[in-house]
Specification:
Layout (H helix, E strand, L loop, with lengths): L2 H11 L4 H8 L3 H8 L7 H11 L3 H6 L9 H16 L8 H18 L4 H10 L2
Length: 130
């Protein structure tokens, strides 16, 4: 998917017309149309405006990686730590703080990129890091 196609997808997900989004971004509708057709590359200010106006994930917008929209970081952080703690606390010797930090970090990165994790994938991941 091209940058222009992602801009279209983002605009449609926000339920905005080209004219409405262009107005929010402070650009003309023809300029936005050019960006959507990949006829021109949008300047960084427009990309930043798209991210702000549509709660877009910059990685997704620029290169198509991760979720379209930014996720609630606090929620993902809490899920990551809770999952890591639950798994690591099964060790009868207690939780190793360094392992808690490493596993929580890996889970957090995964949640930020993918938004969620299936129970089967979570179990496989936790077994892999055991």
């Amino acid at each position: 998917m091209t940058l222009g196609q992602r801009i279209i997808q983002l605009r449609k997900a926000a339920d905005l017309s080209q004219a409405q989004l262009a107005k929010k971004l402070g650009i003309s509708q023809p300029a936005l149309a050019n960006y959507e057709r990949d006829a021109r590359d949008p300047p960084s200010a427009v990309l930043q405006g798209l991210c702000a106006a549509c709660n877009a994930n910059p990685m997704w917008l620029l290169i198509g990686i991760g979720n379209m929209h930014l996720q609630d970081m606090g929620e993902h952080f809490a899920k990551s730590v809770a999952t890591a703690w639950t798994y690591l606390s099964e060790n009868p010797e207690g939780v190793d703080p360094s392992k808690l930090v490493k596993l929580s970090n890996a889970l957090f990165q995964y949640y930020m990129e993918h938004g969620s994790m299936s129970e089967s994938f979570k179990a496989s991941l936790l077994e892999a890091v055991a």
